[in-house]
Amino acid sequence: MTRTLQAPHQISPKTHPAPDAMPSTSERFRLIAGSAHPELAREIAGQLDVPLASAYVGRFPDGEIDIKIQDDMRGTDVFICQPTCPPVNENIFELLLLIDTLRRASAGRITAVIPYFGYARKDRKDEGRVPISAKLVANTLVSAGCDRVLTIDLHAQQIQGFFDIPVDHLWARPVLEEAVRGAGLENLVVCSPDVGGVKLARAWAKSLDASLAIVDKRRTSSENVVMENVIGEVDGCDVLLTDDMISTGGTITQAARILKEKGANRVCIAVAHAVLCGPARERLAECPAEIIWVSNTIPLEGDLPPTLKTVSVAPLLARAVTRIHREESLSALFWDGGSS
Ligand code: R5P
Prior knowledge:
The protein is built from eight helices and 14 strands. It has helices at 38-48, 88-104, 133-144, 173-181, 198-208, 250-261, 280-286, 314-325, and strands at residues 29-33, 55-59, 65-69, 77-81, 109-114, 148-152, 167-170, 188-192, 211-219, 225-231, 238-246, 267-274, 291-295, 308-311. The radius of gyration is 20 Å and the shape is globular. The chain binds ribose-5-phosphate (R5P).
């Protein structure tokens, strides 16, 4: 599939809606941080201008999780911020225990704010004798007493249907897009590193008025991929590679390489979740992309490649929390249609 490139143009900044008024501390509303990403929880609390609820999350000597919420939660609309990023099992179980604690403390409504939802890649039985892990995680959250989920860029949108409770699904793209628009990319092509990411790439391309390309990717193992062809014209163009996550970094790094081989000018990357496991940091350090924008749905610690730039989803989550608490529509947060 070859697409005709549009006339060279430079993408420009876009106007965003004014922020909503945040809940006042007098409202029966509380935000709790799990230990997966307290920094993001603090940022959301700062945006909302509310203190974080006082909760102790520790460990018993044998490693079991110990929890005590100090504040009265009776009848309160509670939001727990806990991405289920690595250590995935620890973070999921801690979230379950926080939900159980709140349910037994008679919280009015419990919303799990899961900026990154782990185990999402196992969303169907694609061969014999494998679990559907995403469904099991959804079931356990609901069984524990979760009333609602707020999440960002699920690996597969159909995971929303695994929950028999409301799921508010946000996109990091509008937040990342502000950074992308400031980078002065010209004659832009948005490229998906695989067929699965085409819908997201198309949404980016539509919003940035850019052409679309796709890399033909074959996964040979959980850490390795093979890429030989690019579908679409990238020669002489700036290219923005988009994806939902960087895990081991194999996909995005190889895609950036093949785009360069095919004559791309500047190559940049925009990704919602920086899981960065295994060889990811070394791979990204060698990646020919000029800038790698990621959101802060997952805490980033240690040595990071200088090309990695983080944009915060805290204002987006704060707006969503406010609207959920006030029973207002969240559609207004998708001023240009999410990823569709
Ligand atoms: C695949 O379907 C995903 O959208 C990502 O492309 C993939 O999970 C990235 O994994 P890695 O960084 O290990 O190549």
